[in-house]
User: Fold these one by one.
Assistant:
Number 1:
Amino acid sequence: MKNIENLFDYTIGQFETVDHLLTMGVGAHLAALVFFLVISQLVAPKYRIATALSCIVMVSAGLILVSQAGMWTDAFALENGVYKLQDITFNNGYRYVNWMITIPCLLTQLLIVLNYNKAQIVKKAISLVLLAWGMIITGYIGQLYEVSDLGNLYIWGAISTLFFIGLNFIVGKSIAEQKSTLTHGTDKTIMKVFWLMMFAWTLYPIAYMVPAFMNNADGVVLRQLLFTVADISSKVIYGLMITYIAIRQSASSGFIPARKALGMEPQ
Ligand code: RET
């Protein structure tokens, strides 16, 4: 009974909204996977790992959402017009474990399109990944208390937020440092990527806090809505923007498939 999802009965509308949100998440990640696979040939080898990382994120996040959707429909059954908890429980913890893989991939893609060299990428990635793992592990511990002890939810959430602030600081500093190296107008796009990250990543702590401000069935629907918007923004839309930057930079470095795709003459 770790998550508040298991505490309530749901109307058919509430139950189906959550089911549809999770299923929509699966569809968005699978569709984007196909797109990234097809488009990767337009990305110069120098940047191609960024697009490959998006493929990994799509598979990893897509699969977790399949399991979340399955768990949701297994955990509840319709009894006298309302959905009631059955023998197994629903659990958001799998998401946190999945972030241990997806967040390092997302951050590394950013470092690649920022034109850092290999040694700089490794150095920065290590600090970013350690901060991210600190944020996720402390957040994971905190969410275990959302039913039993809100005090612990706040304390672990606050510790996790310290890691989050450190991580954002490095991300912001790296973008500011490297922005001028981005070619073909992508210095503007990278700023949009930054603001997209600030928006989408902040939805996750809000979802974490739902038990504190909306401890009811509507809160559960809100939380899955926040997760879905956050997932599609921070992985799918973010990945599309990163690959767009990669293609434009590939074109300005003379990579023919990218130049052709953008309607430019070979150099
Ligand atoms: C937690 C705990 C409460 C405090 C904070 C959190 C931050 C979570 C974030 C998650 C980002 C996830 C992404 C996943 C992509 O696959 C852990 C909820 C600050 C920022 C981008």
Number 2:
Amino acid sequence: MPKILVLNGPNLNLLGTREPEIYGHTTLQDINDRIGKRAAEAGIAVDFLQSNHEGVLVDAVQAANHKYDYIIFNAAAFTHYSIALRDAIAAIEVPVIEVHLSNIHQREEFRHTSVLAPVAMGQICGLGAESYMAALEAIICKLKG
Ligand code: DQA
């Protein structure tokens, strides 16, 4: 059975109440439930991890190597400056799809840069929770070959 890892970075545990005008009212649990349901339908096993700590996310990316087929990763603010996470993604063979709820290219200039994008398989942003679902659909297609 194919396996994917859904990783979420800092402050995404607060989704639902955090800046709802930007991120909406959907909680991380709601998003994970939707992913889990669609993945189960498609016969894919899925693990979830959210952390506010860069080192925990680096450890999770490293540990994912040879264990998962794909990673869906919203690194949140770390997207914009974590060379440690970029290097971890570059060091593993598992393809990473970078996702964001908001359209980072429409927001403050410091959010326009993703240091992860050059080492990610692709980036999906601006679709709210559907950014994660679109990443999952892409994975389902790719797994079918
Ligand atoms: C985010 C965008 C980031 O700029 C921000 O720091 C986040 C969430 C998003 O999903 O839109 O925490 O990754």
Number 3:
Amino acid sequence: MRMYDLIMKKRNGGALSKEEIDFMVEGYTKGDIPDYQMSAMMMAVYFVGMNAEETLHLTMAMAQSGDMLDLSGIQGIKVDKHSTGGVGDKTSLALAPMTAACGVKIAKMSGRGLGHTGGTIDKLESFEGFSTAISTETFIRNVNDIGIAIMGQTKELAPADKLLYALRDVTATVDNMSLIASSIMSKKLAAGADAIVLDVKTGSGAFMKQEKDAFGLAKEMVQIGKNAGRNTIAVVSDMDQPLGRAVGNALEVKEAIETLKGKGPEDFTELCLTLGSLMLCLAGCARTQEEGREMLKKSIADGSALDKLAEFVKAQGGNEKMVYDTSLLPAARIVEPLPAPKEGYIEKLVCDEVGICSLILGGGRETKESAIDLSVGIVLEKKVGDYVKKGDVLAVLHANDREKLKEASNRLLLAYQIGEKETKEGPVIVGIVK
Ligand code: URA
């Protein structure tokens, strides 16, 4: 078999067979197929597309390119959750303890943030001493003992995807539905869960700006999951403005804790209840979504979800006192309000711009190696649909550097579009794909 012939076949509109896809993925992972040939293939796929069968074969080939985590040592149905990423997306921080408190086994692999979106691991490191660099044995033991463990993605997990994603990133071939779906699902399948709940974001701060594309991606991923024998459901949710009010690592941890106390923002709480109730159903802990929602609400009301977070933080070396006293979390030196420049309705809040402002303050990574400041970020006091008078506080910026604060404030002001048009905030749940 020759890579040249496969590139030509795809370029001319053909469908690749399982053997051809296996040859290509294996050859590229081993270094036998050079970047320039794989780049040409990715561009051909970008223009021609892949059918459902090809997408499944690509997913399986990438999943099997490294270790497939064996979670059979954990009793019960293991459910994983994945978000396609967004600004202020601290969902796992609240959702994992809520669902674990209701009996779901949470064995999760998470990533760090890159660019304007944050990663769960960075956020969790706001807890002093917390580590996701745990062995597979500790991971499995913790899930069996307390129902929850989160570890960092190992190098051995879907290495073909890692190589391909880095190549796509620099060859303008990221935003193809089959390539995104296979990339995400290869990691989820390799991570070993029995069932998967996907949170596919749509809107200005998401990969998929248009609703129809988000539903397309959701359907493609659900189909891959089912074909691979994993019960999979996707929720399409809004990312046209940041989720909740806090953007920035420790600030988001604080908001997740507030949510576990029943005092979280409405949109964020609703997303957690929707995703959580689906997870409870897939895990066999609830018969219906309604029953699942009630169980989750009870875990908040009786404090068991908050206690589960503390148990989890402690089990992974973190200071669990911070769960009960959020004033111990990293805090920025400068806390400054941003006043509204005029009266009117918030017609739009450009989502990725808010993420970039947090990045400017030092809350995200410019490169994979950059250190991040866990304490900085933004708390949005006003969101889409709110009416403001001149001088009302739009947002509060948390900073450690005056220069960065100035740059972020100027930019955040431009992210708020204030006008006379009465605007309604859209629902956080856009749809569910089963
Ligand atoms: N996230 C991934 O893991 N892969 C993609 O291709 C896009 C987003």
